[in-house]
Fold each of these.
Amino acid sequence: MRLSRYFLPLLKETPASAEIASHRYMLRAGMIKQHSAGIYSWLPLGFKVMKKIEQIVREEQNRAGAVEMLMPTIQGADLWQESGRYDDYGKEMLRITDRAGRELLYGPTNEEMLTDVFRTFVRSYKELPQLLYHIQWKFRDEVRPRFGVMRGREFLMKDAYSFDIDMDAAVVSYNKMFIAYLNTFARMGLKAIPMQADTGPIGGDLSHEFLILADTGESEVFCHADLVDMPAPGLDVDFANGDPNDLQSLVDERTALYARTDEMHEPSVFESEVPRSKRLSARGIEVGHIFCFGDKYSKAMGAKVMGPDGKEHFAQMGSYGVGVSRLVGGIIEASHDDAGIIWPKSVTPFGVGIINLRVGDDVCDKTCEDIYNQLCAAGVDPLYDDKKDRGGVKFSRMDLIGLPYQIVVGPRGLKDGIVEIKDRKTGERQNQSPEAAIAFITAQYADMSL
Ligand code: ATP
Ligand code: MG
């Protein structure tokens, strides 16, 4: 992409309303525009990052055996009356009446809708397990939308739902999602810690929230410090044919140590289980939440299947959410400096920025065009700053938008046949020939697995 043809409306001033770094940088870097409280337009740069995050979420859901579908944003009130949540959900639910006077709502989540799909089509245990997901906008009329996309009213969520014949099988589905979540967040460069969670209005027995540590997080968390650096299970977990006990051990290893949010925190247990030097109390951002709630919805809505015993059983269910749009802010909270954002390679909107310090100079222009064309061909997706601004403007702009690498092309270096590569995170600079720079950048994106 050539910057001269891109839509990147940067802000010079830091908006006063933005209290945290991610919100400030998303506004300043032209990623989002607020429409009204908690409702945003995603401008091209922000949209590109969100799509990359969404794709990682999708790949890890698919790897774990979940199947993608799409449900509507607008739901009928009738299903929610059946489950009993129409009244329970209260003011967070945006209620709408259509021209025929029918009560509708903008979905805050989809347990009811998918339970309805399930009860319509699935009759036998032979069709289980089912693990289905979609990535769709949600609306929750939050009391206090804030921190930009972190607590929006309209936000993008991946929500998956599992249906099993009994609780043992439901736990296997739960474990698959637990493992998939850790891999998902690790691929985004995040250290997410699973924490024992309150099951809240969704109800049920087994629940974990996944939190990334950040001073600006809304949740207070307490955990054993060793959890912070525990590696993700890895992409070679055999979800399809592996022994369920192996999945269970991976989960057990990661739930053995104390980790709870304030809602579930018990100081006496924390102090007795965790040695003083390992007690970590911090703040965190919830990026995912998984529940196993058994037959709560299947019973209320009559979602039954025939079991191997010839009797009808209510499906045992779980639901699994990831805050896709919140993650855009969460990743920035975890990775930025005073100059701007520092994107992890896996979600960066462009692989590298090419800065032409003298647009209009034949040699500079030609070198940049060559680098640009070759990197495009290599699939690195460069952003070429071909605008006629001063060097200082170009440097700070490129730092702000946070691409992992920059290639700086100027007349002085080119006299000696060199360009400069800058690593955005470390600030390290190296001088290379244009060919070597192209090879270096291409190599950085050659292996993007965990
Ligand atoms: P929170 O405790 O932050 O209000 P929740 O428990 O209501 O979240 P879930 O119903 O578990 O959220 O939703 C799944 C995921 O969706 C959350 O883990 C979070 O990442 C994301 N999410 C929830 N509410 C919002 C919101 N208002 N804005 C952006 N993302 C959200
Ligand atoms: Mg939650």
Amino acid sequence: MQATLTKPKSGSKDAFVSKFMQDLAAKNPGEKEFHQAVQEVVESLVPVLERHPEFKKAKIMERIVEPERTITFRVPWTDDKGEIHIQRGYRVEFNSAIGPYKGGLRFHPSVNLGILKFLGFEQIFKNSLTTLPMGGGNGGCDFDPKGKSDAEVMRFCQSFMSELFRHIGPNTDVPAGDIGVGGREIGFMFGQYKKLTNRFDSVLTGKGLNWGGSLVRPEATGYGCVYFAAEQLATRGDGFKGKRVAVSGSGNVAQYAVEKVTQLGGKVVTMSDSNGYIVDEDGINAEKLAFMLDLKNVKRGRIKEYVSKFPKAQYHEGTGVWSVKVDVALPCATQNELSGKDAEALIKNGCVCVAEGANMPSTAEAVEIFINKKILFAPGKASNAGGVATSGLEMSQNAIRMNWSREEVDRHLHNIMKSIHKTCVENAKEYGQPGNYVMGANIGGFMKVATSMMDQGLV
Ligand code: NDP
């Protein structure tokens, strides 16, 4: 998806942002998504740097945008016909000030260093917001799992882990899933890690329940996003009951966002994939969601097949999901999937709340529109932090060699989302922008990392 940067505004504060972004772009050419993610954070942090000149003197901003380590490697694998393929693998170990690197692995043909740096950079602040001791990192590969057999996916995952294993560890770097990496891929990678190291380490999260996984981890990002949106609606004395909701995507995050909205009394009327979207005016209830889970997670089919099973729904090719009239929008597919025009359309149709399940799904222009129009807008680093938070809970359970009940994990998750919401609200207020969750999340996430970096000296 196309990235759009907003121009920094004029004025002395903005001169700082402008110069910072020029230097960053010169040093990291062509990495559009990374530039976009950094610009949003730097703009939010200007008042913090004014209040804390010690951060400026210690060049915390310049240090925080430079990954501590970036690894790229060759991933050769053989398909079922015996043909050899060569992919490029990556792990960006961005910041370990508050804990071991932690963040997803993405397998998608669009993967490149700029996308993984944007994800790793956002992860620093998101992980800090969870209150758990996790640094920021991200990785992946330009491999496309779509249309591949299980045997091909296994051979690829084994080859990927044959290099990655030497860079990760339970106290070093603990990857998880992301786009194209679900339970199947985590399983194949964990098997290969164990074979190479002869250790049953807590080195990946999103593991199967029988071998170290946590209850509620598959549901956590989607549930967490809806818990966050519910907190936002509550600030206006409202809730999900009776609300029409648009969800984009039909993968892990989207699926469980739909489930939780329905449980809270809302009606989800859309889901999508990279080919198109469905509109179901009757709502995607539990029975229809079960069909979707089987279609996407087992049959690995396309969303248009939904209308063959439920003919009252409609299928549309393309990206028009945000033109549907809804009260709440939960973008849960991918970066930059919601443009400025989409934001205008949502607002015109009466949408009051947008909580990002995906990472950076709204363009910079869309974010600006939501903030200016005082929509309840939650940036992904706050509203999708439930996934990594529950990964942190999986690590805790592994460390004490015990499994918590579903209720216990869900209670922790819910409390963490409430606490992130509170952090955002308080920081936005403290810095004179009440209701601005972007600013609140960036400042809340930054403070803990920045002070930890100060404590640990120039490393
Ligand atoms: P999945 O691979 O399970 O699902 C991704 C969904 O997004 C699919 O429906 C996919 O459609 C769609 N999609 C992917 N790329 C595009 C594209 N270029 N255009 C339109 N649709 C697209 O991934 P997840 O659900 O895990 O991740 C979704 C988002 O949530 C990502 O931004 C991810 O970084 C973020 N996230 C995920 C977390 C997790 O725990 N899994 C945690 C925090 C954030 P198709 O099947 O056609 O490719």
Amino acid sequence: MPRGYHGLNVPGRVSPRDGRGDDVRQVIIIGSGPAGYTAAIYAARANLEPLLIASSVEAGGELMNTTEVENFPGFPEGIMGPDLMTKMQEQAERFGTEVVYDDVTEVDFSGRVKKVTLGSGAVHEADAVVYATGSAPRKIGIEGEARLSGHGVSYCATCDGFFFRERTIAVVGGGDSAMEEATFLTKFASKVYVIHRRDELRASKIMQDRAFANEKIEFVWNSEVVDILGEDAVTGVVLKDTVDGSTRELPLEGVFVAIGNDPRTHLVHGTLDLTEHGTVWVDGRTSRTSVAGVFAAGDVIDPTYRQAVTAAGSGTVAALDVEHYLASLADAGAPAVDAAQIDALPDTADAAHAAA
Ligand code: NAP
């Protein structure tokens, strides 16, 4: 029996929840950070009945590792990262999002109907997918780093800098992120070491000059952090000289690791086009990827800003693009739509922008 098109809540169409056994969703959202949940809120309010795959252990994304979030609009007193994510989830569920806690192990975006396989073995199908898997801060990979994460070890100066007023801290890294974070952290800390493994920075000249000119910043060259010391809070680091191999301890109270971020693209290598930054390529300011029906949002498309608020905005874009895509499928005469018809679809995002 040919698969029916169960996409839109329009006359003549049926919902995937109508008990007829066909389980093709309108949209699956992969990722449960601000981008994923915001896409879910918008998609659910548009009656798209999204299924959101939230990961088995990392549900909620990077904000689950953050303490107080003070820069998310609408929370003048601040809000704990995990509480913010719980609220986003509740808001998404309130409008009909179904959340599944499992890891996506495989995606198949080759047909019009997209397939998403989970760790449990379950295979879910949908007309559209929003890929919002975020990015992960690169770790140094030493024991004290994991143990003291959230207790003096941080990966986000914007999130945690405020807690280091009048403290001596270090930023690890020699790129733009490290310079930016070090400079930002001098607003709070009394002293900021920048610990870099070489004797020259990777950062752009303007960022370097800004850091060099800052009296609170001291550079520690040719040094690798090989251990982070402290029982319940950071008390220092052990540095290894990359030239002569000697080690020494440097007392301090906080370590900000800024050695780069890796967008979580492992599921879509070879499937979606990536940019030179390793992020998923999207068409201009839209969320459209190189594959029709697959949309991407949040940190996985963003090499620069990587904020909860910008990710949430990006999730909104994805949900609106999905709506237009599904409407275009319906206009094109699904269920008989085929690849040729998809190619012939109007540029939905451009049409939306033109209409705005
Ligand atoms: P990045 O440019 O890749 O720099 C990473 C830095 O961390 C490098 O200095 C690298 O050392 C060091 N590093 C990497 N792995 C390490 C390890 N295991 N142990 C110790 N050090 C390690 O990353 P980024 O600074 O996050 O910047 C990423 C992109 O975003 C760049 O294109 C950057 O220009 C952009 N960005 C722009 C701005 C801005 O313009 N405002 C701000 C932030 C980021 P080596 O130098 O020895 O390789």
